[in-house]
Structure formats: C-alpha cells, structure tokens
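Dear colleague,

Thank you for sharing your sequence with our group. We've completed the structure prediction you requested, and as agreed, I am returning the results in plain text so they can be pasted directly into your records. Please verify that the sequence below matches your submission; if there's any discrepancy, let me know and we will rerun it promptly.
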Amino acid sequence: MLEPGRILLMACYELGHQPLAVAWPAAFLERAGYAPAVLDLSVEPLDGEKIARARVVAISVPMHTALRLGVIAARRVRAVNPTAHICFYGHYAVLNRHELLSDAGVDSVLAGEMEEELVELVRRLEAPEAAAPAGLVARPVLAKLDFPVPARSALPSLKKYAHVERDGRRELAAYVEASRGCKHRCRHCPIPPVYDGRFFVVPVETVLADVRQQVAAGATHVTFGDPDFLNGPRHALAVARAVHAEFPRLTFDFTAKVEHLLARREQLFELAGLGCVFVVTAAESLDDRVLGYLAKGHTGADVVAALAALRAAGIAPRPTWVAFTPWTTLASYRAWLDFLAAERLVDCVDPVQYGIRLLVPPGSLLLDVPELREHLNELVPGGFHYRWTHPDPRVDRLADEVGAAVAAAAERDEDAASTFDRVRTLAAVAAGAPAPPSVALPRDRARPPRLTEPWFC
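Please find the predicted structure tokens below.
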C-alpha cells in the first residue's frame, strides 16, 4: 500500500466551487485504504513538497479552463518529479487525449464514472515492479458506482470559494451533485461525447450527508451542480425535500434545460417552497437556426416561456448564452441585447456571457454538423479547440472587442448595467448604428441572487 501523500489529487478550476472532482476520488481512494494528498491550484499555490512525494499525480480537468491550467501544472509536476505518473481525468481529458498523451507529458487519461478505475490504476502502480504505463487511455466508464460521501476535510475552507450574493450580503455556498452525466446530446456540450446520453443518480442519503458536512462548515446555500438537475425529476424532488426537511432555512440553486423547466413548471412552485432561489438554464440563443445546430431541444419562444415559468414560481432565472457563433449576425446579436434589456435580465446575466464564443474541442459533436465545416479552421496547438472564422469580419472584431471590454470591466468591478451599456454601444458602432439609450438602472437597486463566480466554461 502506498504511503500517505504518494497519491496527489489536483484541481485547477471548478467554477469557483470547492472541487467535488477531487473530493469524490479522494473518498474512493480512502475507502480502498489509501491516504491521498489534495491540492487546489485555484486557491492554493503549487506545493513542491507534495509533488516531490507523489508516485501518482491525478489532475482533474472537467472543463476547458481547467484543462489549460492543468497542462501548465503538469509541466511543473514533471520538472519537480520526473518519475511521477501523471493522470488527467474528466470530460476534457478524454476529448483531448491525443494531444495530452503526445505533447503534454501525460501518462494516462480517465473519464466518466472513473473513480474505481483510478483506484485500480493506483493498485497497478503500487506494485514494486510496476512501470508507469505510458499512453493509457481508458474508455469512459459508464457503470453505476457505490458512492461514498465526498472527502472534503483536507480541502481549503469554503471561505476561499464562490459565495452566494443576495440581499446585499455574501454567504458561504456548498456544492454537491445529485446526478452525473446527462441524458441529452446537445452538440456543443462536452458531456455527450463522454456519457452518450446516460446519467447516474447519487443516493439521496449520500447527497444529504455531503450537504450536512458543508453546512457544518458554515454553508447557508447549496448549488446542485448536476449537468441537469431535472434529468431525473423524481430523484431531484426527493433530494430537495430531504435537504429541506433537515435544513429548512437552507437555500439552493440548480441547472436545468429549458425543455425541462417547461415540462416541470408545476414542480417549480414546490422547488421554490423548498428553498430554490435561482436556476441556471442554458438558453444559448434566441435564434432557432442556431439552436437547431446546437441540438438544444428548445426554441427561442421556449426560452421566453421558461423565463416566465421561473418568475411565476418566484425563482430568479440566470440564463447562459453562447453569444458568438458562426451564424450570429450583427442584427441578431443586437436583438439579443435588446431582449435582455426588455426582459429585465441585465442583472441576471453575468457580463462575461456577452463575449462567449462557441468552443469546438476535439471530439465535439459539433464536428458532425455540415454547416460548421465551412467555417472551421485548424486545431489550435495547445489551445485544445478548433479555430473558426465568421463570414462577416465585423462579427469577429466585435467578439474581440466585447471580450476585452467585459474582462476590463470585471477587473474594476464595474456595475453590470454599465458593462451592458458599453457592450450595446460596441455592437451599435459595429453595425454603423446610433448607440441605444442606457438601461438606466440605479446603482442601489435590488438585485437577484447569484454566485460570485461568473465563469461557465
């Protein structure tokens, strides 16, 4: 059995949350008798001593940002500890497995329900005669696991992570998952290439125990980070009821598809009564043609109806968007901004969303869309995505200008309404049109609840 600290689990970025993608593998390893060390580079410095002790370094890369940071971390690991076995795991690990194994110095790649596979990898490597198996790629594991309660005690305090902001104050936020994977196949999402339309529920008792340990650490709000909380609506309600029964003052948020919000609109009232204060939903676009290319399963009219359903239940909507695609026009972009103003969504959309550009990683289902191929260019070396060019150069320039503007605004903590006005003006100038009037929202206005971490990719 490897001595304590000889396994190092490393997170790079998990949307500002305490990394469940480290806490769960740690729990599986502990149950198997190991004593892994953990490190979260989003809030901690790289620890050379932990790296030097490690026989196995497993780096979590559930999203694109984490992958890029993870590759940088892997190079530093290799410099400190040349003989360590470096394993990348998560959605973006398997999508980018070829480049990771050939150019990034990674030894193995795992994905899906991979915790037991990681335990088995460690068992193989602990044998005295074991050599690090180079180039090992396990197929995504799609089998139901026996979930332990995530091991969080060695992770940094919740105080270091995203808070919930509401009523002018910030409070500690927990993060749990009641299910993993997704039964849908949205083409721009990294989950379908891995899970192929399957999802797995976590027992209610396990979710409740994870909530319990984070409430004990000071959390007053919980994010259900499932790709879609309503994939299994009966399970979701059972979880929400159990959490509310034990912690009646705890609030929560979740993510769900537009079509699920419409199909379950009556249940939204119960979820609000159980403590739901906002819902993230991937609206992505109001253009039905774009939504069809992305295989979202909803229309622009459905987005409007879902927003109304949430508000009728007393739940704040937080729609997310893919602002720039090869099919976005200056007119459609400006119409979308007008829609946000008219629907009173300026405070419900994080300004970073105004500059989000469609990401096409290797393995993406988007690569099968003929309408994309004419815009697609080369794979960006070290960028882990394909470059695409808009047929209207003005749109590409606007995307660059908006991206720079929202980044600068975030740096100076600019009011969201001011950033919105700035972006709207940039779009008008790009179209050769006069700037529209300001949304004129007072600085002391009441704002809907949100998490303080605005990034979504």
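Summary note from our side: The chain has two domains: 7-137, 162-451.

Kind regards,
the structure core
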